Amino acid sequence: MKQYQNLSQLKKPASQKGVVILEALIALLIFSMGILALVGLQAAMVKNTSDNKYRADASFLAQERIGRMWANPNNLGSFSCTDAAAACADVSNILPNGSRTVTVEARGLVTINIAWRLPGSDAHSFTTSTYIGAL
């Protein structure tokens, strides 16, 4: 076995140079990918939250109109409207590009359709039907 007089005679293997910096760069890459995934998840959560808020608003508007109709069931025909009518104009103040259609059919069947469209998004709608008055 060969003995060395001092440590300066020991030679370090050349293949180990730069390994620490390579490990640091790989760790930084993995960390950056994790942060980007969290940012994407946050963006999806914000979009879904706003979609759910508009759906809840549409449901509220439909139920509010049905409540008014239940309060005055003898005059159901006056509640019919299309999106151009003044009675339906209040929807666009709450929902972006919103419109409400109320149809009253025979035997008191009422159908309310509320539609809205976010800028740069698909159209959404909420429809509900109920019977009002004596059957």
Spatial strand sequence of the major β-sheet: 1-2-3
Q: Roughly how much helix do the residues carry, as a percent range?
A: 40-55%
Low-confidence stretches: none
What do the pLDDT scores average to? Answer: 82
Q: What integer value in Å does the Rg equal?
A: 33 Å
- State the shape: rod-shaped
Query: Percent of residues in beta strands?
Result: 15-25%
What is the tally of helical segments? 2
The total of beta strands comes to: 3
Please provide the ordered H/E string of secondary-structure elements: HHEEE
Class by SSE composition: alpha+beta
Question: Major sheet, described briefly?
Answer: 3 strands, antiparallel
State the end-to-end CA separation: 107 Å
Word description of this protein:
The structure is a single chain. The chain has about 140 residues and is an alpha+beta fold. It is built from 2 helices and 3 strands. The chain has helices at about 20-70, 90-95; strands spanning about 100-105, 110-115, 125-130. The protein has a 3-stranded antiparallel beta sheet, with helices on one face. A hairpin with a 5-residue loop joins strand 2 (about 110-115) and strand 3 (about 125-130). The longest helix is centred in the middle third of the chain and has 53 residues, at about 20-70.
